[in-house]
Predict the structure.
Amino acid sequence: MIIESLKLNNFRNFKTLNIHFTKGINFLYGKNGSGKTNVVEAIYFFYLTKSFRTNNYLQLIKINNEFSVINGIFNEGMMKYKIDIQLSKDGKKVLVNNKNITKISELSNLLDIIYFIPKEVNLFKESPKVRRNFLNLSISKFDDNYLYNLQNYEKVLKERNDLLKEDNFDENLIKIYDEQIAKFSCYIYKIRKKYVLELNKYLSSIYTKISGNNEELKLHYVPYINENENYLKVFKEIYSSNLENDKKYKRTTEGIHLEDIYLTLNDKNLSFFGSQGENRTAILSLKLAPYFLINEENKKPIIILDDVLSELDSSRKTKFIEFLKKFNQVFITSTNKINDLNLTYYLVSDEGVSIK
Ligand SMILES: Nc1ncnc2c1ncn2[C@@H]1O[C@H](COP(=O)(O)OP(=O)(O)OP(=O)(O)O)[C@@H](O)[C@H]1O
Ligand SMILES: [Mg+2]
């Protein structure tokens, strides 16, 4: 999947904008505040109708305007999709090939976008929820049944938690929930484990390509159960044996909704021992790795890299650009142009965006 063109109306600092993109590396450069991040933010918006820097979509509407329009043409092999999004105080309206869609999942099934923005360097310093979100979102592209199991797990978990908040609730009902939740947990656990194993086939090689050093980067999954156990039985025990604690805290205190992951570089935990630059390169490698798990060429995600180059030393910068040539379509923003014949350059300025 690639994006062929983007049209903006009253989006962030742009009154109007119309750009065509190419396959390979699209390099957007320009001064601070010229609108580079705004352009890639608009591209990412097609994926989940979410911005990667604000939860309030109204901030995307150009100040002093009532609404904002984002149009994109996407190409997936022989298929073309025209996506139109309109933002206003009344909500978000999304059309795919002129047909209204109501469920965001229809968009995220159609598209796949991976992004890396500077604040990503804190991925392992933030709460585990952020890491689980990353894992869940990327696994949903890897396994067709994962999202179904996860959504059902979350539904039962919510019902279980609601029940725990009631006085004198029926404990038999909790037992029924535990049966269901254990079943979904088994599936989620198996796929998470498999996925982390698959990602690890690529992590060290991506890291090594960017850093130039032969190093071992490994993702570790911290599950609730041990290898070779009877999953279903153990999961049931996890939920049922914590009932006293759950009653005390009025929520499900143990379970796969609390699982986590961490990274090691040459067997050392990166969050505790890694330098800022090592952390950045490692997390960048982690975010790019899911690209290699998508087998179908046309389904491979678009890559958005906002401001990553300024953070890499000059040797890593050159190696990284070389590595990025492997990907179908990449967007990089930077304040400085890097001269390389194989990139398409866009100068972003007050006058708009032009190919330079
Ligand atoms: N809703 C809005 N209406 C009008 N202008 C906005 C809106 N939101 C943001 N802007 C402006 O858009 C401008 C460009 O922002 P953007 O973050 O895209 O810059 P950038 O080119 O990525 O800069 P940097 O190199 O510093 O990262 C900013 O000056 C900001 O004030
Ligand atoms: Mg920016």
In short: The domain at 123-293 is CATH 1.20.1050.90 (Glutathione S-transferase Yfyf (Class Pi); Chain A, domain 2). The chain has a mean pLDDT of 94. The two ends are 25 Å apart (CA to CA).
